[in-house]
Specification:
0% strand, single chain
Length: 111
């Protein structure tokens, strides 16, 4: 198998994993009204969803790094633009993850 095919298969697997992890990271407990009562009941679920957000950010960060080596031969400026905007989206995911992690009501969960 040549290098191009291996990288393409890897990116495809990462995209499918990104979709699956993104679906698993949705947590209705955080968004519902009166979540102060339900946080202690669903603490393990919130921790798992926060971990899924972290994994999602790692997956999203690895896709453009792999694609950069493939797409720079076609158009370098568009490839760098794709890489920069993916880094921005990963930064927003990390900000969301940190906001879940550092909420005052979640200090009970995370210590």
């Amino acid at each position: 198998m040549d290098n191009l095919r291996k990288k393409s298969i890897t990116v495809g697997i990462l995209l499918i994993l990104g979709i699956a992890v993104g679906i698993l990271s949705i947590d209705p407990v955080i968004d519902e009204m009166g979540n102060l009562e339900s946080v202690s009941i669903h603490s393990n679920e919130i921790l798992m969803r926060a971990f899924m957000q972290f994994i999602l950010a790692l997956i999203y960060a690895s896709i453009p790094i792999i694609l950069y080596t493939l797409l720079k031969k076609i158009n370098t400026s568009l490839t760098i633009g794709f890489l920069v905007f993916r880094i921005i989206s990963v930064a927003f995911i990390f900000i969301g993850w940190l906001s879940i992690r550092n909420r005052p009501i979640n200090r009970v969960l995370f210590g």
